Prior knowledge:
Blueprint lengths: L12 E5 L3 H4 L5 H9 L2 E5 L5 H5 L2 E3 L6 H14 L5 H7 E2 L1 H7 L5 H8 L3 H13 L3 E5 L1 H4 L4 H15 L9 E3 L6 H6 L6 E2 L3 E2 L3 H11 L11 H6 L7 E5 L3 H4 L3 H9 L3 E6 L11 E4 L8 E4 L5 E4 L12 H11 L10 H11 L41 E2 L18 E6 L15 H6 L4 E4 L1 H6 L7 E6 L2 E9 L7 E5 L27 E7 L9
Parallel strand pairs: 1-2, 1-5, 2-3, 4-14, 5-6, 9-10, 10-11, 15-19, 16-18
Antiparallel strand pairs: 7-8, 12-13, 15-20, 17-18, 17-20
Helix pairs in contact: 4-7, 4-8, 4-10, 7-8
Amino acid sequence: MSNPLVDMSKPDTIFCIGTNMTECHPVAATGIKKAVARGAKLIVADPRRIHLAEMAELYLPLRVGTDVALLLGMAHVIARDGLVDEAFVAERTRDAEEFLEHVEAFTPEWAEGICGVPAADIETAARWYAEADKGAIYYTLGITEHICGVDNVQSLCNLALMTGNIGREGTGINPMRGQNNIQGAGDAGALPNNYTGFQPVTDPENQAKFAKAYGHAVDLEKGMTKVTALELCGDAIRAMLIDGENTVVTDPDRKHCEHALRSLDHLVVIDIFLTETGKLADVVLPATAWAETDGVCTNTERRVQRLRAAVPPQGEARPDWWIVSEIAKRCGIPGFDYTSAQEVFDELCSLSATYNGLDWETIDRGEYQWPVPFKGHPGTPILHQGEFVNGRGLFKRIEYRDPAETVSEEYPVWLTTGRRLQSYHSRTQTGRSSGIDYLLPAETLEVHPDDVAAWGLVDGGRCRLSSPRGAVEITVRATRRSPRGTVFTSFSFDDTPVNFLTGSGYDPVTQTAELKVCPVRVEPLPERVSTSG
C-alpha cells in the first residue's frame, strides 16, 4: 500500500475495485466505514453486489474480466473534461502526451459496450475521483487474478497519475494483501525476479553484492514461477519443497496440479497441519504455528512487526527458518548457519535498502513502515511524497483484451471465485474450528433467482458445474448478489474442489492465474431418493 491503513478514513472519494474488503479484510474495512460515515463518496466496482456495494454511493456492476475497459473509459472522461492535474503531470510524470492521445478513443459509451456499466455512471465515477481533493484507490485479487492483471494495475496507476492522487495523505494506490505476511515474503526475496528489498537478480551489481554475502553466485536470470515449475514436474524438476502453502486446493486446474506433484520423485511439505498437499508428500515436516514462533511479519501497509512465541512448540514442530536451514546444510549449501530468527532478520536488514535502518531491537514495538533507509529514520507511512523512486511516474498505454476464455454455447455462464468471511483461504486452519464449521459447514453456488428458474435449478438443490477442465457438484443458493449470467463460489472446501474448473490462462508478466474468470455450464442434478425404510 502506498498509504497507511489510518488513511482509509481520510479521503473525500474512495474507489474500491476488485476488493470484497468487508469479507476478506473485515478489520481494515472499518476505515472505509468510518470514511463513509464522515461523508466520503464511495465508488465500488465489482461484478457482484457485495456488502461494500451496498455501502457505496455509486455502484459499478461490471462484467467479470472487463476492468481495463472501465478504467480506460474513466481515463477518457478525465482527459476530455479537463480534470487532469496539469501541474502534477508536468512536474512528476512522463509520456503523458502520448497517453492522453491514446485514451481519446475509449469513450464511456465504448466502455459500456464491453463492461456493461452505464456510460453516465462511468462519467460520474471519473469526475468524483478526479475532482476529489483526496481520492484513494483500493484493490485486491479481483484486479490481479486475471490474464491482464498487470494491465489492470497499470490502468489504476494511470488514473492516480492523471489526477495527482498519489504521495499525499488520504490518497494513493492501495493493494490489500491477500494473506498474512505476503508483503513480508516479497520483501525477503520470495520472488523469482528479486533479491531481498526488491533488488533485481538480473543486475550484475546485485549479483556481486549477494554473492559476497552468501558465498556463492546466483545466475543473472530470473528464476521460474510456480506455474513453470509445475509444468516441469517429472521432467526437468524431480523434487520440490512446498512450505506453508496448500497448493492442491488453492492453485488453478487442480487435475493438472495433482498430476504434476505425483510426477515428482520426491515431494517435501512443511506445514502446521497435514493438508491436502501434504497427503501427496513423501516427507512432511511439522512447522511451528504463529503462537509458537519468534519472527517478523510485514503487513499490508509495510509495517514491520515482531512476532513472539507465547507457548512452546508441540511435538517435533520447528520454525520454518530452522527447517529450511537444516535442509540447506544437509545439501551442502553454505550460509545457513543461523541460530535464531533474529540473525535471519538482521541479515535481511543489512542487505536491503528498504530495511537498512532496522534491526531486531528497533522493531520491538512495530512502529516503522518501510522504507527505513538508515538508523534514526522515522519510517515512511506514505510513499511517493514529492518524488518517485525512479524519478517520474510513467504513463502506460493499455489496450483492452478479453479473458483467456469467454462464454460460449457450450459454457454460457461466467464463474468468478473468491473468499467467504467465515472461512480463510484453503481452510487449513479455519476448517478445523467447530465454531466456524457451524457458521459455514459447506460451500454453495450463488445464482441469481431468475437464472435459478431459467436453468431448472432449485434453491438448496444440487447442480453440476462444468468447465473445459472438469466438473464439480455443489449446492445452489439463490441470491441477487450475483448478476444474471454470473455465478460465484469460493475455492475453500476440498469436498467442493472448484479449482478443478479454473486455469484458463495466466498473466504473461507475472504468471498469475485467471482465477476470477471461468466460463462454465450449470446443470441441475436429480434429487437423491432415499432407499431407507
